[in-house]
Amino acid sequence: MQLKPQDFLVAIKLVAWGEQRWTYARLAQELGLSASEAHAAVKRGLQAGLLLQNRVPEASVAGASRAVATSLQEPEGIYRVTRKRVRRSASPSGDGAPLDNPVRVHAQALAEFTLHGAKYAFPGVRLPLAVGVPTSHSAPAFAGVFAPGSSDFVWPHPNGSVRGIGVEPLHPSVPFAAMQDAKLYEMLALFDALRVGKARERNMAFERLLALIDPNAPAPQKEMFRG
User: Fold this and answer.
1) Could you tell me which of 117, 146, 173, 186 has the fewest CB atoms within 10 Å of its CB?
2) Closest CA to 157 of 182, 176, 141
3) Cα(161)–Cα(137) distance, rounded to whole angstroms?
4) Structural contact between residues 112 and 106, judged by C-beta atoms closer than 8 angstroms
5) 208 near 190, Cβ under 8 Å?
6) Sign of CA dihedral 85, 87, 88, 93
7) Domain definitions of the chain by residue range
8) For residue 142, which of 95, 208, 198, 49 has the smallest C-alpha distance?
9) Percent of the chain with pLDDT strictly greater than 90
10) How many helices (H) and strands (E) does the chain have?
11) Segment 139-188, tens digit of pLDDT
12) Do residues 1 and 47 lie in contact, with contact meaning Cβ atoms separated by under 8 Å?
């Protein structure tokens, strides 16, 4: 099993949604994917450990039901049957996470992958100058953070409004998906800063991504990237 860019995109989208209730249809629609692509991405995310199952597998529920049926059929001296309750709200990790959705993000694992592995799995590729949607430190989330005059980075897109150095997006649907969700846009731009930014931009992106994905993680050390 090999992770695909859309698998990472789906995981980041779930971070952006937080505890919102969602459906596969909505997930696919907002990311510009097909329903089958969204299902497959979630499945690979679970296999990779970036996502966690919320719901009790149907096999477990069926097994518990068979156990209850068997106990009802067994003769006993005193006809007292204790029905075993199946708690669908039980969290596999015991962390009390809300279970309205089929899966949730494994925050620690996703943060580790995002900050230390994803830029190697999905490296940033610079493209010729183009008009497109601003990304990396050029995105709206970083307005006022960096001094004006630095080169802009953009995802080439016909509806873009900024001319700059092209950056191949994580997935072809990224410009569309980013324009649907400001928080997702911020996280994808931060990820691009890790992929193509300078040291200061990468340091800031590292800290902000960690805080967004895994708020309970220890604060990172300063001056992590140089050059």
Assistant:
1) 117
2) 176
3) 16
4) no
5) yes
6) negative
7) 123-213
8) 208
9) 63
10) 9, 5
11) 988 887 765 556 899 999 998 989 999 999 999 999 999 999 999 999 99
12) yes
* Global confidence as pTM: 0.79
Q: What is the pLDDT of residue 151?
A: 83
φ, ψ of residue 129 in degrees (nearest 5) = -55, 140
% of residues, the chain, pLDDT over 70: 74
pLDDT for position 125:
95
Mapping DSSP to helix (H, G, I), strand (E, B) and coil, where does residue 107 land? helix
Pairwise CA distance, residues 67 & 190, whole Å? 50
Tokens 């994808």 belong to residue:
188
In tens, the pLDDT along 174-225 reads 999 999 999 999 999 999 999 999 898 999 999 999 999 999 988 766 545 5
Listed in sequence order, the residues at least 6 apart from 141 whose beta carbon sits closer than 8 Å to its beta carbon are 182, 185, 186, 189, 190
Backbone region of residue 130 per phi and psi (left: phi > 0; alpha: psi in -120 to 50; beta: other values) = beta
Q: Which residues, 6 or more positions from 223, have their beta carbon under 8 angstroms from its beta carbon?
A: 203
Please name the helix (run of DSSP H) or strand (run of DSSP E) that holds residue 12, with its range, or none: helix 5-17
